[in-house]
From TrEMBL:
The protein, known as: Glyoxalase
SUPFAM superfamilies in UniProt: Glyoxalase/Bleomycin resistance protein/Dihydroxybiphenyl dioxygenase
Pfam families: Glyoxalase
Family matches, as PROSITE patterns: VOC
Species assigned in the record: Streptomyces variegatus
VOC domain: residues covered: 4-124
Domain of life of the native organism: Bacteria
């Protein structure tokens, strides 16, 4: 039986720039970084989470999935999204909205990485 999500992939045009964004701006940690037969295998992850995000190189013309309103390839959870939003904004993260928005399920805002990938940041509503 399957028992874990091991990796998810985000396609980037510059792995060094993406690494800086995901670690220095979003606050994730670098996990793996080594050359492989198909290219550099570079991962980041949320501290204390087993899931790793592969920052995989691709051509700029490959395009990005989804448009406005579509979820990003990553949905990251926060215990205090408004506080994290302010920290990330000071670090230079670009957001689609001017501040987090309340929804019936909790709080949400969409960030954008240097390649235009949308990162959904969520805080679930407390019961």
């Amino acid at each position: 039986m399957l028992n874990n999500i091991m990796y998810v992939t985000v396609y980037v045009t510059d792995q060094d720039r993406a690494l800086e964004f995901y670690t220095e701006r979003l606050g994730l940690e670098k996990r793996l970084d080594f050359p492989g037969p198909d290219g550099r295998f570079l991962t980041v992850g949320v501290p204390d989470s087993p899931v790793q995000i592969i920052l995989w190189s691709h051509e700029p013309a490959a395009g990005q999935p989804g448009g406005p309103g579509a979820p990003g390839p990553l949905i990251l959870e926060s215990g205090d999204l408004r506080k994290d939003f302010e920290i990330m904004r000071r670090r230079g993260v670009v957001f689609e909205e001017s501040e987090p928005v309340d929804y019936p399920f909790g709080v949400r805002i969409e960030a954008v990485d240097p390649d235009g990938n949308r990162i959904s940041l969520r805080q679930p509503r407390k019961p």
